[in-house]
User: What shape does this take?
Amino acid sequence: MTPVPLPRDLPQQVDRALEEDVGTGDLTAGLIPEGAQGRATVITREVAIVCGVPYVEAVFARLDRRVRIDWHTSEGARAAADQVLFQIQGPARALLTGERTALNFLQLLSGTATAAHAYAERIEGTGCRLLDTRKTIPGLRTAQKYAVRVGGGQNHRIGLFDGILIKENHIMAAGSIAQAVTAARGSGAGVPVEVEVENLEELSQAIRAGADIAMLDDFSLADMAEGVAVNRRAAQPLKLEASGGVSLDTIRKIAETGVDYISVGGITKHVHAVDLSMRFEW
Assistant: This one.
């Protein structure tokens, strides 16, 4: 796969994670003789898409650059249950101190990538693409959105600053869909303008207003298919995003209606951390 660019704030995320865990010092690791060396093997107890390799490396590099990691897999690879992911050796104190932080990143991001892959795999061949949402763990948004891309999904807007998504409350405050889109165009932000619509009439309004994307919120499959047909007949069709109530069982049928994107908040909000184990040898 094409390498996914790393989040620019990766070093800061690692520093914050170590700070909250280590604080003023690892009291328990301090019981180990300073010169002691150790080695360990990390395995996954379940099938997973591996994600978080750069985070693991950053954790141990931050603690002690004498630590050496031998990877038996790669970022974005599929790992089988009980497969060795990496072996590590170096100063025992650093290995023990970094264990939890490194595995926290690896299990969370692998879980996110695994979930994204499962959804993306279901819609292969339809031309529809999987999107994430802003429903992420606070402080780890860029990390999770990175993991979504490693898993085969695409990112929706990163935050409130890089895209305009006009929802029900914005429409009510602005007065109408047309007025909200006009205000968005006049803002000079130069970003895509998306409108969340709840029925076919609102979709028609978004098309007439000249939005870039319409989010079909909780549409039935029949209404979704009708919305795709309405959009295709428009002089300036929009991109269509389906959202709400999406599951692994329903995502294929949604994609087959002809929408361009399907957003799934659960891939980052309901993430199942992959079960990992770090076994030490002395």
Notes: The radius of gyration is 23 Å.
